[in-house]
């Protein structure tokens, strides 16, 4: 039987807290989602001033990054380069916007972080910061 590392709720809350602190320091609003290795939600934060569409966008970014084992922006770039729709995956939760980053433990993806509400570059940088807190 295989033993695999699992992202815990405690781990997810550490990621949320790190990004929340950064958002508070910048006085900006955003949504932060942390998912398990299947892309299913473990924890969610919606800060004051967060645009409402950002809630689902953050969840979907984490979902895409975990399911594809790649940053959501990379999935979107591949889709544009190869000219296929993300709906070809058969799941409307897939997104190609940057801001979703997988969390690695060794070579295993144990989850993902999705951030939405700022620019794509800022969302991605914050998600990467959160992923580095837990992963390698």
Determine the CATH topology: Beta-Lactamase
Q: How would you classify the helix and strand content by structural class?
A: alpha+beta
Unreliable residue runs: none
Evaluate the radius of gyration.
Answer: 14 Å
Outline the structure in words.
Helices cover 44% and strands 20% of the residues. It has a 4-stranded antiparallel beta sheet with strand order 2-1-4-3. It has a single domain, classed as Beta-Lactamase, CATH 3.30.450. The protein has 136 residues and is α+β, with helices and mostly antiparallel strands. The mean pLDDT is 94. It is globular. The chain has 4 helices and 4 strands; from the N terminus they run αββααββα. The longest helix is centred in the N-terminal third of the chain and has 18 residues.
Key structural traits:
single chain; 136 residues; alpha+beta; Beta-Lactamase; 4 helices
Q: Briefly, what is this?
A:
This protein is α+β, with helices and mostly antiparallel strands and 136 residues long. Helices cover 44% and strands 20% of the residues.
Fold blueprint:
Elements: H1 9-26, E1 31-36, E2 41-46, H2 53-68, H3 72-82, E3 100-105, E4 108-116, H4 120-134
Antiparallel strand pairs: 1-2, 1-4, 3-4
Helix pairs in contact: 1-4
């Amino acid at each position: 039987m295989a033993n695999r590392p699992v992202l815990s709720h405690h781990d997810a809350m550490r990621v949320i807290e790190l990004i929340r602190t950064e958002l508070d320091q910048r006085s900006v609003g955003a949504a932060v989602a942390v998912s398990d290795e299947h892309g299913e939600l473990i924890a969610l934060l919606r800060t004051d001033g967060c645009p409402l569409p950002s809630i689902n966008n953050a969840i979907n970014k984490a979902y895409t990054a975990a399911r594809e084992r790649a940053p959501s922006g990379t999935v979107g770039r591949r889709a544009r380069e190869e000219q296929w729709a993300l709906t070809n995956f058969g799941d409307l939760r897939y997104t190609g916007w940057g801001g979703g980053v997988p969390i690695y433990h060794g070579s295993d993806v144990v989850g993902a972080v999705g951030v939405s509400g700022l620019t794509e570059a800022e969302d991605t940088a914050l998600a990467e910061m959160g992923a580095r807190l837990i992963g390698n």
